Amino acid sequence: MSIVVTGATGQLGRLTVEALLRRGVPAADIVATGRDTTGIKDLADRGVVTRRADFADPESLAAAFAGAEKMVLVSASIPVDERLANHRRAIDAALAAGVSQIAYTSMTQANTAGTTLADSHRATESYLRERGAPAVVLRNSWYLENYTSQLPIVLQHGAFVGAAGDGRVSAATRADYAEAAAVVLTTEGHTGAIYELGGDQAFSLAELAATASAVAGRPITYTNLSADELVELLAAAGVPAELAGVLADSDLGLSRGELFTDSGDLRRLIGRPTTTLADAIAAALN
Ligand SMILES: NC(=O)c1ccc[n+]([C@@H]2O[C@H](COP(=O)([O-])OP(=O)(O)OC[C@H]3O[C@@H](n4cnc5c(N)ncnc54)[C@H](OP(=O)(O)O)[C@@H]3O)[C@@H](O)[C@H]2O)c1
Known about the structure:
Elements: E1 3-5, H1 11-22, E2 30-34, H2 41-45, E3 49-52, H3 58-65, E4 70-73, H4 80-96, E5 101-107, H5 116-130, E6 135-140, H6 145-148, H7 151-157, E7 159-162, E8 168-169, H8 174-186, E9 194-197, E10 203-204, H9 205-216, E11 221-224, H10 227-236, H11 241-255, H12 265-270, H13 277-285
Helix pairs in contact: 1-8, 3-4, 4-5, 9-13, 10-11
This protein binds NADP nicotinamide-adenine-dinucleotide phosphate.
């Protein structure tokens, strides 16, 4: 069995490769791909096949996906308005290679959510259906790391900021989502499924601040801003305008409950409780 993982040069894809290895998939049966494979030489040294695959370059995809039986298609980290065209090329190449399953990493409630990120995931899910692809949709909520990576600056200022109001997010660690992807790829009965994946305990950003405060032993609050104020603040902090807009738009989605799920799908797939917010914060502070 040969399993291709796209985005393996990135964080979720690499963790997915690690999870496949832990589940006993032989290294030689895993094809780890990205636009620049120099960063995954360590995986090649462990026997994983590494190949260049750029969704903008169909020839690279035909070569990278040759012989693949299954694929984890990690959504690309490129501007949202470029994602669909790139995902379509990846899906076309996977189908041309004859894969029997494509597990696509989408986003919570992608069928109905009103954010620009959800739009691009919904369009990709639609394309998978249109092509009759044997797909499994992994609708991931936010990464806990979106918050834990902010801890150094949050500790400096004693505050998280956002525009999410009282909305609750079912964030989970990348590692838990990666493990779920590996389970789907290595067990039967998932084709056609749509999994709404998220952490067991959803939290509001005020609850995030309270948990961070308790774990760090320092006062940390949550300051809620309007979306415009958040864009301004992020821009002043050097965040590119497109990304600042997407982040503020996503917080509005969060405020509407669009990153929440109580499906239990993640817990069921990985066969254990998901990593808690407090544990993720403690790990990040160590
Ligand atoms: N759920 C969330 O909270 C959340 C947050 C951020 C992003 N995301 C989405 O989830 C994805 C995975 O997250 P992550 O943290 O692992 O992101 P990441 O570390 O930035 O990795 C993104 C991966 O996408 C690959 N990629 C980008 N453009 C590509 C293209 N044109 N063709 C082929 N590969 C391409 C990159 O390859 P190279 O490095 O080789 O260029 C990289 O391996 C992201 O790409 C994004 O769509 C989700």
